[in-house]
Design brief:
Distance between the termini: 51 Å
Helix content: under 10%
Oligomer: single chain
Number of strands: 11
Structural class: mainly beta
Shape: flat
Largest sheet: 4 strands, antiparallel
Radius of gyration: 17 Å
């Protein structure tokens, strides 16, 4: 599907790290390599990208861009279940026989919104590793 204004897109930054942002403008007359203005919320600014930076199909549904290993609402996604009219993101921690839902929505009215996303690549570049004595 061709990217359109209002779609979410997973893209690579200049350092190779993957990010998720919302397309706020498409300028077909801009440089061929940087024709999409993608809004990024970590700096309240815009990043200009081209087709060569997009790593997955753009979608109006944010859930379509989330991958196992990403962090949603502060918790790592270990399992994704989605289908017609529903989606659930799980952190795979069991409480008896019930999975803990990080975010989800279904046709019966259950809704736990996606409030924040950090891609696994963003997390890897930003984490501080404490070295332990060996």
């Amino acid at each position: 599907m061709k990217p359109k204004k209002g779609m979410y897109v997973r893209f690579k930054g200049n350092n190779g790290t993957q990010y998720i942002g919302k397309i706020v403008n498409i300028n077909e007359f801009r440089e061929l390599f940087f024709k999409y203005a993608v809004q990024v919320n970590w700096c309240d600014d815009y990043v200009f990208i081209g087709d060569h930076k997009i790593v997955s199909k753009p979608s109006f549904n944010l859930i379509d861009l989330i991958e196992v290993g990403d962090y949603v609402n502060g918790q790592q996604v270990k399992q994704i279940s989605k289908g017609d009219g529903y989606y659930y993101l799980f952190n795979d921690c069991y409480d008896g026989i019930t999975l803990h839902i990080i975010a989800g929505k279904d046709v019966d009215g259950y809704t736990k919104p996606i409030e924040s996303i950090v891609t696994k690549e963003q997390f890897e570049t930003m984490k501080y590793v404490v070295e332990r004595d060996k």
